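Supplementary Note 2. Why include the ligand at all?

Several targets in our set were suspected to adopt different conformations when bound, so apo predictions alone were not considered sufficient. For every target with a known small-molecule partner we therefore ran a joint prediction. The input for succinic acid is given below.
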Amino acid sequence: MHVIVVGAGIAGLTAALHARESGHAVTVVTKGRLGDGSTRYAQGGVAGVYGAADSAAQHAADTLVAGADLSDPAAVDVLVTDGAARIAELIARGVAFDRDADGALLLGREAAHSHARIVHAGGDATGAAISQALADAVRRTDTAIVEDAFLLDLLVADGAVRGIRLLIDGVQRQLDADAVVLATGGAGHLYAHTTNPVGITGDGIAAALRAGAAVSDLEFMQFHPTVLAAGPAFLVSEAVRGEGATLIDGTGRRFVFDSHPDGELAPRDVVSRAIARQAVAQGSPVLLDATMLGAEELAQRFPTIDRVTRERGFDWAFEPIPVTPAAHYLMGGIDTDLDGRTTIRGLFAVGETARTGVHGANRLASNSLLEGAVFGARAAAALAAPWPTTRSRPFRSQFTPLPTSARSSNRDRNAEPAEFSRAALQRLMWEQVGLLRTDAGLADALATIRDWRAGVSEPRTLAEHEDLNLLLLAEATAAAALARTASVGAHFRVAEPVEAPGVEAPILETV
Ligand code: SIN
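The joint prediction is reproduced in token form.
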């Protein structure tokens, strides 16, 4: 069987390695270089279960609570059950997770975990270590690797996937396959402020939507609470708060306790909203105070953050640093069963591209690398199995895009909408489909996005194709958010418009 894996993060590369080890011919297609993508930037680590005090059942319980009762318990069970084998596999493939002097794995703590259970590598460079090890492992096989290739569309005939269309150096190409695994990451660049690397524009999810696959839960975009608010978005890991750092307002008060008894280690959505509201109220970013950890501990445990904060003019061992939320992780995506199968025969989705049901309305920190490894391996194992004739579980929801020619604006407004640009779309999403959402804001955003989609011309360049993907996903996201009238997890409705924190990260004087 010839299998195409589109994407080269932990989920895609795990799927590729397992597929090759099962004897399939494998081609990995990636928009950038092998090992590029969001995985490389993951800081916190991989959630596991270690020590007598912790258990898979408690990891599952924490995941379900964080997911606000919208996770699929069967998917969560798979995650925590298969997780140990996948972490062992990463170690066997060469990922050197950090250990103490006796050789035991060092375990970090992150928000909403009942135990310290996060394994990490290079302090805060876990994703880079994983990307490197998996990319090296793939290169040691005879897997075909196609880099700098943009996924244009899926080829589907008689309800089954037959291959993909690609754009390489401005030229369209076709690759045939018996199965396609989509692992293209999320869609952080829907938003003006994101932790996602350049190129994360939802290409796999958009292609699946165009092909008619079921896609769910796009309204659940997770905003990470702490991105350095000085210069281009740079993540400051939740593990820093896990080690004891606090969030303070302009007067030095720990304001997150006003929103949740767990303060800085409350669920991520709660902390992000508390920060956004406080930043708008005080007219400047809130501060993350890690000074109590001391220079030596900060440099050793968080070498990447230590370096970048210093490059940006802060000495975080002696002064609090300004932070702001940013779009981080898409909980929704292409609807899959417990083996990564989508609703199109032969098409699989894994990692952030997929909606496996693990994350519900709010992902538990450090469950994403684990999910990528677990479901990447399961999808590969399912390649040769007969395609089921019935679904193992119902879909949560489905968005069906209309052809752009069918659109006409019925929006009541006095002024013409702003002209489309990617920046205008990202700002609209940040302000109206962001952390705090109103009915009117969502409806207005949806109408504007539909106008823009109707007006764009046939894409020719890679950037224009990305723009079309972003517009399609923006429409699906705004529609899903409008349809979900009650607040849950990362989707938070408010009655009155609330100003979003500024997106131009201010270059601050060091405080
Ligand atoms: C972080 O290091 O804070 C990010 C971890 C995650 O998103 O799971």
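DSSP finds 13 helices and 18 strands in the chain. The mean pLDDT is 93. Comparable summaries for the other entries are listed in the accompanying table.
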